[in-house]
């Protein structure tokens, strides 16, 4: 048996060819400092004789064995970016190849895809983008997106016992935050919000967050920012199975399992399934109502990637269902006790097909198609609490709402050989329709067709100038070009421009500045909603104007690897949003309780973000803070009413690694300052500030096959904060004196098992 | 651990013990109907009820010496009246130019000074003859747009001679006026008048000595924080018989079971007709249904001086239709 040892050095811009021969290839990957990696690396192998492709993963020390004869073209994927390696090799027997990485520093400068369609590192991305990787998601023992976002200082969460958890960025929330799954919008907003607690983290690779309008790329609803959830791709191992379980003292029982395998060497598939059950939490045992409602979530997803030469076809399907039980208080009619049980069923089925045609190193076409289904069903029963007899309550308490989305986005990407100018040009078609008891079936839905172009100019090695524009034709609001075409309402879809500037002062320090126009067409619900009964009188408004906004962000980003084991990063940004025609639900006639959606005057938010991080071999510190000032300007008959308030968040995360024991202790703290707002009577309300502290201990056993985590979340046991916010909007409104924050202190244990 | 994650489910709810009913308490469910198409008169002594339509009349004239005139605030949300002063029927008027605050409705407490017409028959000429202040009133009927001509009525009360009221009225665009005599009857509280049928109606299905409380639709002053003022809002609630029935609202003060005769005799009643009112039920927006305030408790002193304690226990019938108030009550002895 002969061995051939080769040291291959490559960078992102310098490719070296490698043709490997032999029956068994043992490949060892080294880090730039000569050490072995501490995380698995993704490797694609192209068997040139048979033209088959597989994807494999090294072990945590960077070692990989491939059984195959003939030449192989290896593609190493450090995190996300793919790099071709070409080097002539010899021999027909077992060989060992050492590959020394000098490529991208994934840990310091993660790879992103949001907003650019091609993979770019944070430092080379003109957008000021935040990445939450799988490692961090795992370290915080997050079970759903809500668990992740609550540890981010630039995001504020709102809790509603039935509607769920909503996210606010830069003081902007509701319909203005777009949540994407692999670039495709997630549908199904209740009260304008996507319930972020309905998005499980079990199959998520990373989360990319861009603050500020991204309408130029992602269209309507991306006024305040986007949260793009990137799921794992199947790797192509012959068999890979994992199972995770999680339990805690407030009776969360979570379990998920995933299998990856391959039908052929060029057709890997993955399948995962999971269940999350929460038994509910009640702080007042005297009442029948539970403060935190019981929920059962079941989810599954399927992914496959077919690669043939320069064609890549990815098929993904995600299914999610949730059952939430809301119990009323017991009522006594002197004969018996009775109560009402409302069940809220959510069904979400998101399907995607992505085609990637890589013509050569400079020309590429991506075509992403999606069909998403969302259904929410409410079923109410009246229960005799003495006999247990339970029957369907009134027909008006049974309700089903359906939404469907068809999305097709095609992008042609051109990278100039000189690297002086790249551009993307594409189209984006979206058709969304919804119906239900309160949304007439006759509504035509909303169709949005847009063309967009982005130019990425590099006049010098330091400057990156990225102007973009989007041309929209909306079925209700017409076209930004042909003004009289299509639209029936009074607003016209505008041209949406944006300009991103990046100046790289040194290899460590990058400045960015951006202007982005935001645009949001009113939603189906805002246009067509109709809810009239003895107590409600809420109507959609077909004469709404779209929201538009201007956003400016300036930021500085410093990233410096101090040594092989340590690096530091610092990021500072300030932002300004100015939204016109902001849509809100307003009381039009107190006498008839007539509510409708209206455009209010202006909404402005300004603020700053500060982030600092330091990582060494054993310690990891991450600090971030956000301060946001919000001003609502509401025109009155002869004046303008200003409503203003300031919010802030601080997050601090410390991780201590115990290298020899292969364990780590992670302490997460965050502070949310008092939140202010205005009741309908224009009185100012305050929701108190609060601290949340988690401590999580993680480790691995048996050759890293078994992972464990245990710890305490919400150590301080905060459950609610004081509030004087009005809780209702009718004549029977009550004023609550607290707002729920958390089900309380919880002790948890999580185990994960890797079988193959 | 994995098994518990897999099989965990909601705990079945434990059954309640049946409620203990106070001895002597009886329950009665009354039918206003899902759209409140009926108003219901209820008598505690006999447990009997009678009903009629609350929407067949526009204004009503009291048989008592108080000369009270009331308008039908329960008919629709905008039903109200305003004083135009001493103008004639031929004078043109523009209802749209009348400021919103000038439109009045009756205070459901029954206080004549807080009614839309007020004590308009002020001048007592002789023992049973009163003349009005000649003030012209405009009544907003709230008709649909295609009935704009009948959306408002101009009305002047001329006099009351013994049991008969004399009024002069016309629809707001008419130059010619009508005169109507409205007789009243001592066994009824009011005689009702409908402008469309142009005549008085004996609308009360039973005599005033045969009932204690009335389940009806009426207008109540509600504070609207949004505009920082009170507005008239049509509610579904209970008014007491102005003929000697007294009520008191003890919600949150004492439990129903703790009330005995001695306690009832010790409370001080007032003359307000809306002490029971409408807020023994609350509407939950989230649940989209009414719930009964579990603390609601009242004492009724009947026309013949008997004391009853009462509470509401439901607002739905067995088919889960709203508008079926169920009360529990007990004669205190």
Describe the structure.
The complex is a heterodimer of chains A (756) and B (333). Chain A is an all-beta fold and 756 residues long. Chain A has two domains: 95 residues, Immunoglobulin-like, CATH 2.60.40.10; 506 residues, TonB-dependent receptor, beta-barrel domain (Maltoporin, Chain A), CATH 2.40.170.20. Helix content of chain A is 3%, strand content 58%. Chain A is built from four helices and 52 strands. In chain A, a hairpin with a 2-residue loop joins strand 23 and strand 24. Chain A starts with 6 loop residues before the first strand and ends with a strand. The N and C termini of chain B lie far apart (63 Å). In chain B, strand 20 and strand 21 form a beta hairpin. In chain B, strands 6, 7, 8, 9, 10, 11 and 12 form a seven-stranded antiparallel sheet that branches. Chain B has a five-stranded antiparallel sheet with strand order 1-22-21-20-17. In chain B, strands 3-2-15-16 form a four-stranded antiparallel sheet, with no helix packed on it. Chain B contains two helices and 22 strands. Chain B is mostly beta strands. Chain B folds into two domains: 138 residues, no CATH class; 143 residues, no CATH class. Chains A and B meet through strand 20, strand 21, strand 24, strand 25 and strand 26 of A and helix 1, strand 16, strand 18, strand 19 and strand 22 of B.
């Amino acid at each position: 048996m002969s061995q051939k040892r080769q040291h291959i050095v490559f960078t992102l811009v310098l490719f070296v060819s490698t043709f490997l021969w032999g029956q068994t290839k043992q490949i060892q990957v080294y880090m730039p400092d000569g050490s072995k990696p501490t995380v698995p690396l993704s490797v694609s192998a192209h068997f040139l004789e048979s033209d088959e492709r597989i994807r494999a993963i090294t072990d945590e020390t960077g070692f990989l064995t491939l059984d195959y004869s003939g030449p192989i073209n290896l593609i190493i994927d450090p995190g996300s970016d793919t790099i071709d390696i070409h080097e002539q090799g010899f021999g027909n027997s077992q060989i060992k190849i050492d590959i020394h990485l000098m490529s991208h520093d994934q840990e310091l400068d993660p790879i992103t895809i949001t907003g650019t369609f091609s993979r770019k590192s944070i430092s080379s991305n003109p957008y000021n983008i935040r990445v939450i990787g799988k490692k961090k998601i795992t370290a915080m023992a997050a079970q759903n997106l809500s668990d992740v976002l609550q540890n981010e200082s630039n995001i504020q969460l709102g809790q509603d016992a039935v509607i769920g958890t909503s996210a606010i960025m830069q003081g902007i929330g509701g319909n203005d935050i777009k949540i994407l799954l692999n670039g495709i919008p997630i549908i199904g907003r209740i009260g304008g919000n996507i319930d972020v607690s309905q998005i499980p983290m079990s199959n998520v690779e990373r989360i990319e967050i861009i603050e500020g309008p991204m309408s130029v790329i992602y269209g309507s609803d991306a006024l305040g920012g986007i949260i793009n959830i990137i799921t794992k791709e199947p790797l192509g191992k012959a068999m890979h199975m994992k199972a995770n379980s999680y339990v805690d003292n407030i009776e969360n029982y979570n379990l998920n399992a995933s299998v990856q395998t391959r039908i052929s060497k060029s057709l890997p598939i993955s399948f995962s399934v999971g269940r999350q059950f929460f038994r509910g939490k009640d702080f007042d045992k005297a009442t029948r109502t539970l403060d935190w409602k019981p929920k059962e979530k079941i989810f599954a997803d399927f992914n496959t990637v077919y690669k043939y030469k320069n064609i890549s076809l990815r098929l993904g399907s995600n299914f999610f269902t949730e059952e939430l039980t809301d119990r009323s208080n017991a009522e006594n009619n002197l004969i018996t006790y009775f109560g009402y049980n409302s069940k809220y069923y959510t069904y979400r089925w998101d399907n995607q097909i992505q085609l990637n045609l890589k013509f050569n190193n400079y020309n590429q076409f991506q075509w992403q198609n999606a069909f998403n289904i969302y259904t929410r069903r409410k079923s109410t029963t009246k229960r005799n609490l003495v006999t247990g007899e339970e029957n369907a309550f009134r027909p008006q308490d049974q309700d089903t709402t359906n939404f469907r989305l068809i999305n097709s986005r095609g992008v042609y990407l051109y990278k100039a050989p000189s690297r002086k100018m790249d551009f993307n040009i594409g189209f984006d078609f979206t058709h969304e329709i919804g119906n239900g008891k309160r949304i007439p079936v006759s509504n035509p839905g909303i169709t949005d067709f847009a063309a967009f172009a982005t130019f990425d100019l590099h006049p010098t090695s330091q400057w990156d100038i990225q102007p973009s524009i989007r041309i929209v034709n909306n079925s209700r609001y017409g076209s930004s070009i042909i003004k009289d075409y299509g639209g029936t309402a009074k607003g016209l879809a505008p041209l949406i421009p944006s300009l991103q500037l990046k100046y790289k002062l040194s290899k460590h320090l990058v400045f960015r500045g951006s202007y982005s126009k935001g645009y949001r067409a009113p939603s189906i619900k805002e246009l067509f909603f109709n809810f009239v009964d003895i107590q409600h009188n809420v109507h959609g408004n077909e004469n709404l104007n779209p929201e538009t906004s201007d956003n400016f962000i300036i930021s500085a980003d410093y990233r410096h690897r101090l040594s092989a084991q340590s690096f530091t990063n610092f990021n500072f940004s300030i932002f300004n949003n100015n939204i016109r025609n902001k849509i809100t639900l307003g009381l039009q006639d107190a006498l008839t309780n007539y509510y409708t959606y209206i455009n209010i005057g202006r909404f402005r938010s300004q603020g700053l973000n500060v982030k600092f991080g330091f990582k060494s071999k054993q310690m990891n510190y991450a600090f971030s803070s956000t301060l946001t000032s919000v001003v609502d300007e509401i025109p009155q008959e002869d004046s303008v009413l200003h409503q203003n308030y300031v919010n802030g968040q601080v997050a601090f995360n410390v991780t201590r690694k115990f290298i020899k024991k292969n364990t780590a202790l992670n302490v997460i703290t965050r502070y949310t300052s008092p939140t202010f707002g205005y009741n309908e009577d224009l009185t100012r309300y305050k929701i108190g500030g609060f601290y949340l502290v988690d401590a999580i201990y993680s480790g691995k056993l048996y050759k890293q096959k078994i992972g464990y985590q245990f710890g305490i979340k919400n150590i301080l046991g905060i459950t609610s904060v004081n509030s004087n916010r009005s809780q209702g909007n009718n004549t029977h409104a009550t004023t609550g004196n607290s707002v729920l924050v958390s089900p309380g202190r919880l002790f948890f244990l999580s185990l994960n098992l890797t079988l193959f | 651990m994995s098994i518990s994650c897999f099989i965990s489910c909601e705990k079945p709810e434990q059954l309640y013990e049946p409620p203990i009913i106070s001895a002597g308490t009886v329950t009665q469910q009354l039918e206003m109907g899902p759209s409140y198409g009926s108003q219901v008169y209820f008598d505690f002594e006999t447990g009997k009820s009678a009903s009629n339509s609350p929407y067949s009349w526009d204004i009503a004239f009291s048989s008592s010496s108080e000369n009270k005139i009331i308008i039908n605030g329960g008919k629709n949300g905008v039903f109200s009246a305003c004083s135009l002063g001493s103008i004639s029927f031929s004078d043109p008027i523009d209802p749209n130019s009348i400021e919103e605050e000038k439109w009045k409705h009756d205070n459901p407490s029954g206080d004549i000074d807080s009614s839309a017409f007020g004590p308009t028959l002020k001048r007592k000429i002789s023992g049973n003859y009163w003349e009005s202040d000649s003030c012209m009133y405009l009544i907003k009927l709230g008709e649909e747009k295609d009935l704009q001509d009948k959306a408002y009525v101009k009305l002047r009360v001329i006099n009351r001679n013994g049991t008969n009221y004399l009024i002069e009225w016309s629809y707001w665009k008419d130059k010619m006026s009508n005169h109507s005599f409205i007789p009243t009857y001592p066994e009824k509280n009011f005689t009702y008048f409908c402008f469309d049928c142009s005549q008085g109606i004996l609308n009360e299905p039973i005599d005033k000595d045969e009932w204690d409380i009335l389940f009806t639709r009426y207008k109540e002053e509600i504070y609207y924080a949004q505009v920082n003022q009170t507005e008239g809002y049509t509610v579904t609630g209970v008014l007491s018989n102005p003929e000697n029935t007294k009520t008191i609202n003890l919600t949150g003060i004492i439990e129903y079971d703790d009330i005995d005769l001695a306690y009832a005799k010790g409370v001080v009643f007032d003359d307000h007709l809306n002490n029971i009112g409408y807020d023994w039920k609350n509407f939950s927006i989230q649940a989209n249904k009414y719930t009964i305030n579990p603390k609601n408790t009242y004492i009724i002193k009947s026309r013949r001086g008997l004391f009853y304690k009462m509470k509401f226990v439901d607002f739905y019938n067995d088919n889960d239709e709203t508008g079926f108030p169920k009360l529990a009550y007990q004669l205190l002895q």
